[in-house]
Design brief:
By secondary structure, the protein is of the alpha/beta class. Helices cover about 25% and strands about 25% of the residues. It is globular, with a radius of gyration of 20 Å. Bound molecules: NADPH dihydro-nicotinamide-adenine-dinucleotide phosphate.
Length: about 325
């Protein structure tokens, strides 16, 4: 038996290393649960892998795709009977293990998260790793006692995947969101669609600044790292909390201990790839609550597996707006 999948071979050996192929089921690892993939999504990491632009894939040949929403079609687990819907994000899928850009997917039980019934498979694909990361960041702010009454929350990289979800979730929960964005055309989207209260230009935070500045926000969700993260920390009010999610500006962080020892600021990191199942369940349950009140306002387009290679190239060139959902079984 065969199924369709994007198939990556070593770019050092093959000139064209990404192809839509008919893959033999025997190529899937013998794992306890097999799923019919309903949707995957195309993330920046997937685009890098498909276009061989960065060493995302740790072993070849491999099926890419770091997100997968599917229905169980064969199972050795009583917990995962045939017909049950599951979400898998992270855990090394699409990097070290075969991923979701395929019609079929083989999973370890610990990778599977129950898809709450309030969330459609399409919405789950739209949320994917970006939405999960944002929700984990918001849950951290809550756990650190940063409630809406404490003051505004800054979100950097606000028009991107993690930033958009962070802005929307925070606004839905009653926080005043200050969106930090370099996209001059995103104002309507950030304010009208996502619910941001105000916008500050990315350039205000992107250069090296004083290590302690006037207090401007109770907390922040940072998607870009580097000077932006240092400035977010420097302008966080006493006992506030900054959650670091990404590195779109850079990996480095040049700050001082001043925000931590003089203002009791906390800096917390998010790793959505290997986060525990309990945290994932909590995050998906919060999405279920939010979606029962309001639809997702995140723009997206649905493509087929066949179109994914072309869209990966466009995504890396910055020519795609919104999320890309891949409908794998059409
Ligand atoms: P996107 O590419 O969708 O968004 C990144 C946003 O950052 C852009 O839209 C832009 O927003 C802003 N940005 C881009 N370049 C720069 C720059 N040079 N300086 C400042 N801002 C910039 O990515 P995602 O939202 O999917 O991911 C954001 C980050 O989070 C990435 O670094 C990604 O690797 C990381 N990530 C981390 C995860 C984790 O588990 N910790 C999981 C998923 C992603 P704007 O135009 O509004 O300024």
């Amino acid at each position: 038996m065969t199924f369709n999948a994007l198939w990556l071979t070593d770019p050092k050996i093959d000139k064209v290393s990404a192809k839509l192929s008919s893959v033999n089921e025997a190529s899937l690892s013998p794992l306890p649960v097999t799923l019919r993939v309903l949707y995957s999504s195309l993330n920046y990491k997937d685009a890098l892998a498909l276009c061989a632009k960065a060493p995302v894939i740790r072993q070849f040949p491999l099926i890419p795709g770091i997100d997968m929403i599917g229905e169980v079609i064969a199972s050795e687990s009583l917990q995962w009977p045939i017909g049950k819907l599951a979400v898998v994000t992270g855990w090394g899928i699409g990097e070290q293990y075969h991923g979701g850009l395929a019609e079929k997917f083989s999973a370890k039980t610990e990778w599977l998260t129950v898809l709450p019934e309030e969330i459609s498979p399409l919405d789950a694909a739209l949320i994917g790793t970006a939405g999960l990361t944002a929700m984990l960041a918001v849950l951290q702010l809550e756990q650190q006692g940063i409630t809406p009454e404490k003051g505004p929350i800054a979100v950097s990289g606000a028009s991107g995947g993690v930033g958009s979800f962070s802005t929307w979730i925070l606004a839905q929960l009653g926080y005043e969101v200050i969106a930090v964005s370099g996209d001059r055309h995103a104002e309507e989207y950030l304010v009208e669609s996502l619910g941001a209260h105000s916008i500050i230009p990315r350039s205000e935070l992107s250069e090296s600044g004083k290590k302690l500045q006037a207090e401007r926000w109770a907390g922040a969700i940072d998607c870009v790292g580097s000077h932006t993260l240092a400035n977010l920390l420097a302008a966080t009010q006493r006992s506030g909390c900054v959650v670091a999610c990404g590195m779109a500006q850079g990996l480095e962080l040049n700050t001082s201990v001043a925000p931590f020892i003089l203002r009791n600021i906390r800096l917390i990191g998010i790793d959505s790839v290997y986060c525990e199942t309990a945290q994932r369940n909590a995050a998906w349950q919060r999405f279920a609550v939010l979606l029962s009140r309001s639809p997702l306002p995140i723009p997206f387009q649905t493509i087929t597996l066949e179109q994914a290679i072309e869209f990966a190239d466009l995504l890396l060139k910055g020519e795609v707006r919104g999320r890309i959902v891949v409908q794998t079984n059409v």
